[in-house]
């Protein structure tokens, strides 16, 4: 017979376990995740205390020495080893060391697509201690000149396939900006060729003190915001932010044996920091693709034995829209990214097998990040007492009419209750700094909130509305610029879009507010192939599943949806164009409440709406 105390202790342990499972079901998952985060933070802190600032580039150079023959990335079937990338980036550094006038800390702008030399040039310039500005290769003329003026580069490096874009801006480019193109010859005046000089350059390493960072808060990159609501802004990216971004794959459980598939543009932080940086943090291999292709996605995954994929925005939906064909025949185990809708999340899991979707939240320039380490559908992450201790944030009430946070009679902001949507703000302090944007200082100042809960406190305004549920899961609700107020109520564009795409003939719905006066809802629609627009069905759908104030007053049917380079819907131009049938050639429709139907939006109806004769 066992002693009584043994059976009593066993019963107590079982009881505690049951209580934990009942009251704190995510305790162990939270603890494991928090310990991983703390472990990484302590490792970085330990380096600094020893007077050593170890950057991601330093880690790459060490890997090139330790595993020179291991594949770093594969591009169009060609393997580029750690050693080979190190040597070619040395050649780039030697070219600019000999031919350029670059000093440590100078900015160099990089206008290149996804190709091996993007990484070679990036690393080569970083070895000289330069700050590299990643330019979005999709933007042209005025927007591109705006980006260049905001980061003030000494040199602009342009890919061979983007010389046409360069020619458009060359006459207006400041004369003190040196221009280099990735070719062996050029007919353009005052433009230097780079490819011929790289091939003739030495592979010798540049002295390490050229790349050494004084501290982790010094600038490493400029990465431009996607510009969904206006011109892109150049976000300062410090060495600390690069390190944090590169830890993302590791934090979700990726290993050195994994093969990561990168189809996102390298000018975006998801591909460059999380993807390339994450690969270096692990010492793993990645497969780099020139451009995302939904039809070739799973073929590539099978061909290269991919185990980790990256997604952003609408990418997962594009995959779900592909014809069904052997889609569970792959080795992918992790999908890491942000911006997947709930319905797409479920469909993705049903169609593509046991892939763990690792959704996270984090702005390029932000100082707060959430990671969904439990896999709960729809959530961007979890929080708890300990997490808020290290990364303090709050959700506060927001006034959509005044377009500013709500303040009480004492002038302080007010927190929302659980289950309510609130503006996500993150405290700015020494451990969680906000570095802001290059160029116009007002852009940086607009992202900061002062005297929020007490005199002198400072918070980063993410511009995102979030909801925290009773289990402390966090959900993205909307952007404050996208949410609009109609008939005294707040309308979340994401909610309206989700309801409309439930219809089997609607491929995509981009919802935004247009001036009438006030802000009324408008939805730009893309129809699925071989389907027809059913206005009666749309009417039934919106009045059944949406409150009356959220039903879109206007519909616009387009052939293609304009998106940013990172697969986010572009709203800025649509908002600007409004609902004028004399200026828009696409079919337009209006929600006529008196007829309980969507009707064709004629010039006569448009004029009656503007004059106030038509009741909305």
Structural summary, described in words:
One of its GO terms (cellular component) is endoplasmic reticulum membrane. It comes from Nothoprocta perdicaria. InterPro entries: AMP-bd_C, AMP-bd_C_sf, AMP-binding_CS, AMP-dep_synth/lig_dom, ANL_N_sf. It is found in: Cell membrane. By secondary structure, this protein is of the alpha/beta class. The protein is built from 20 helices and 30 strands. Helix 3 (56-66) crosses helix 4, helix 4 (82-99) crosses helix 5 (116-127) and helix 9 (239-246) crosses helix 11 (269-282). The chain is globular, with a radius of gyration of 26 Å. The protein starts with a helix and ends in a 5-residue tail after the last helix. The model has no long low-confidence stretch (mean pLDDT 88).
Summarize the structure.
The chain is an alpha/beta fold. 33% of the residues lie in helices and 23% in strands.
Write the layout of secondary structure elements.
Blueprint lengths: L3 H20 L3 H23 L6 H11 L4 E5 L2 E4 H18 L7 E5 L4 H12 L3 E4 L6 H11 L3 E4 L4 H7 L8 E4 L9 E3 L1 H6 L18 E6 L9 E5 H8 L1 H4 L7 E4 L6 H14 L2 E4 L8 H7 L4 E5 L2 H6 L13 E5 L3 H11 L3 E6 L8 E2 L9 E2 L2 H6 L2 E4 L1 E2 L4 E2 L15 E7 L13 H6 L1 E3 L7 E11 L4 E7 L4 E3 L2 E3 L1 H8 L5 E10 L3 E9 L7 H11 L8 E5 L13 H6 L10 E5 L4 E4 L2 H9 L5
Parallel strand pairs: 1-11, 3-4, 3-5, 4-8, 5-6, 6-7, 10-11, 10-12, 12-13, 13-14, 27-28
Antiparallel strand pairs: 1-2, 8-9, 14-15, 16-23, 17-20, 18-19, 20-22, 21-22, 22-23, 24-25, 26-27, 28-29, 29-30
């Amino acid at each position: 017979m066992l002693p009584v105390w043994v059976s009593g202790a066993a019963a107590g342990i079982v009881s505690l376990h049951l209580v934990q499972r009942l009251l704190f079901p995510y305790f162990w998952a939270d603890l494991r995740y928090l310990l991983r985060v703390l472990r990484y933070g302590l490792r970085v802190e330990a380096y600094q205390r020893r007077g050593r600032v170890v950057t991601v580039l330093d880690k790459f150079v060490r890997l090139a020495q330790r595993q020179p023959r291991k594949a770093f990335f594969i591009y169009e079937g060609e393997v580029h080893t750690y050693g080979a990338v190190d040597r070619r980036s040395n050649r780039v550094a030697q070219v600019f060391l000999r031919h350029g006038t670059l000093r440590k800390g100078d900015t160099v702008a990089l206008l290149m697509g996804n190709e091996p030399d993007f990484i070679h040039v990036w690393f080569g310039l970083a070895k000289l201690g330069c700050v590299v500005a990643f330019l979005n290769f999709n933007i042209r003329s005025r927007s591109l000149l705006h980006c260049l003026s905001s980061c003030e580069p000494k040199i602009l490096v342009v890919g061979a396939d983007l010389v046409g874009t360069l020619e458009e801006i060359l006459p207006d480019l400041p004369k003190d900006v040196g221009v280099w193109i990735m070719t062996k010859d050029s007919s353009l005046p005052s433009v230097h060729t780079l490819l011929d000089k790289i091939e003739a350059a030495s592979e010798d390493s540049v002295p390490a003190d050229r790349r050494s960072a004084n501290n982790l808060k010094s600038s490493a990159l400029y990465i431009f915001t996607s510009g969904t609501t206006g011109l892109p802004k150049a976000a300062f990216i410090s060495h600390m932010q690069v390190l944090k971004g590169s830890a993302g794959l590791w934090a979700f459980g990726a290993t050195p044996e994994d093969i990561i598939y990168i189809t996102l543009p390298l000018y975006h932080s998801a591909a460059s920091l999380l993807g390339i940086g994450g690969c270096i943090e692990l010492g793993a291999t990645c497969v780099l693709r020139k451009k995302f292709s939904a039809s070739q996605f799973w073929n590539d995954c099978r061909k290269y034995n991919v185990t980790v994929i990256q997604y952003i925005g609408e990418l997962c939906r594009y995959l779900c829209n592909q014809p069904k064909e052997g889609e569970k025949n792959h080795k992918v185990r992790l999908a890491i990214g942000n911006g997947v809708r709930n319905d797409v999340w479920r469909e993705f899991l049903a169609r593509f097998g046991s892939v763990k979707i690792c959704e996270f939240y984090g702005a390029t320039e932000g100082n707060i990040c959430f990671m969904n380490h439990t896999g709960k559908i729809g959530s961007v992450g979890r929080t708890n007492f300990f997490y808020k201790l290290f990364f303090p944030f709050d959700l506060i009430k927001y006034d959509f009419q005044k377009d500013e946070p709500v303040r009480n009679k004492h002038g302080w902001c007010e927190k929302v209750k659980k289950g309510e949507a609130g503006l996500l703000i993150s405290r700015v302090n020494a451990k969680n700094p906000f570095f802001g944007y290059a160029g116009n200082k007002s852009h940086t100042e607009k992202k900061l909130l002062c005297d929020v809960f007490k005199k002198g406190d400072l918070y980063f305004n993410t511009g995102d509305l979030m909801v925290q549920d009773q289990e402390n899961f966090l959900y993205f609700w909307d952007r404050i610029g996208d949410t609009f107020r109609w008939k005294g109520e707040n309308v979340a564009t994401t909610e309206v879009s989700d309801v409309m795409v439930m219809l089997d003939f609607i491929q995509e719905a981009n919802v935004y507010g247009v001036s009438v006066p006030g802000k009324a809802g408008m939805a730009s629609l893309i129809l699925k192939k071989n389907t027809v627009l059913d206005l009666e069905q749309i009417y039934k759908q919106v009045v059944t599943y949406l409150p009356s104030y959220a039903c879109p007053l206007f519909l616009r049917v387009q052939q293609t949806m304009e998106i940013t380079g990172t697969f986010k819907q572009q709203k800025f131009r649509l908002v600007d164009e409004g609902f004028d049938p004399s200026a828009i050639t696409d079919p337009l429709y209006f929600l006529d409440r008196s007829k309980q139907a969507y009707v064709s939006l004629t010039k006569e109806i448009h004029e009656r709406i503007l004059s106030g004769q038509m009741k909305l």
